[in-house]
Design brief:
Layout (H helix, E strand, L loop, with lengths): L4 H10 L6 H13 L4 H6 L3 H8 L7 H11 L10 H15 L3 H5 L8 H11 L7 H15 L3 H17 L1 H4 L15 H7 L6 H4 L7 H4 L4
């Protein structure tokens, strides 16, 4: 028997889930009402059907649904898209796919999907800021480029872009530092640094004083 919705929400707020606590609480309540095999059945459904079902749950949007599909339901062709992935698609692929013929030749594209990929890139190039339609096009582009493992390819692209954004050295061009010149010593300093000749007698070891000289008896 699961706790009431309000109790689950309050507990999750205390655990630091913030405003999302109520979404989790409602989703838990809904899953309890469904058949025990509900989630397992989604594993065997198509990506589109499984995504639509997950988005019926409270607080689940396209990205969260695709994350669940990829990481929990074995849908390796599901591509979660957010601002990072949209930027990756724009920076890494759109310019090259819509650029010169030489750039296009240098890319390893599926021969049977080249026209489709170029068409998607052309449509995506029209978007200068993220939007629902832009996300959908970026998702379709990556899915077509890297099928049937587009979901895991997205993970690598996301991680690489995130590392670059967190690394200050990657954002700033490196500048060659000038060698530090050693200041020339002044005449007074040169005179002080000149080694001095020690008189020879200072090198000789003095004989130990005798008992008679010290006035001490042996």
């Amino acid at each position: 028997m699961i706790a009431q919705d309000s109790v689950v929400e309050q507990t999750m707020k205390e655990l630091g889930f913030g405003y999302q606590a109520r979404y989790y609480a409602k989703t838990v309540e809904r899953l309890v009402q469904l058949d025990d095999t509900y989630l397992e059945n989604l594993r065997h459904a198509s990506v589109d059907v499984a995504r639509a079902e997950l988005m019926k749950l409270s607080g689940v949007g396209p990205k969260v649904a695709d994350c669940v599909l990829l990481m929990s339901l074995d849908k390796v062709d599901a591509v979660p898209v957010d601002t990072h992935i949209w930027q990756v698609a724009q920076k890494q692929y759109v310019g090259r796919l819509t650029g010169s013929e030489s750039e296009l030749v240098s890319m390893l594209l599926p021969s049977d999907k080249q026209e489709q990929i170029q068409e998607l890139a052309q449509k995506l190039s029209a978007f200068k800021s993220p939007s629902t339609k832009a996300y959908e096009l970026a998702q379709a582009l990556i899915a077509t480029l890297f099928s049937p493992y587009a979901g895991w390819a997205q993970g690598l692209l996301f991680s690489n872009d995130l590392v670059d954004s967190l690394d200050p050295a990657a954002a700033k061009p490196t500048t060659k530092s000038k060698p530090i010149s050693k200041p020339k010593p002044t005449p007074a300093k040169r005179k002080a640094e000149k080694p001095q000749t020690i008189p020879k007698q200072e090198h000789e070891t003095a004989a130990e004083p005798t008992a008679k000289q010290t006035g001490l008896r042996p």
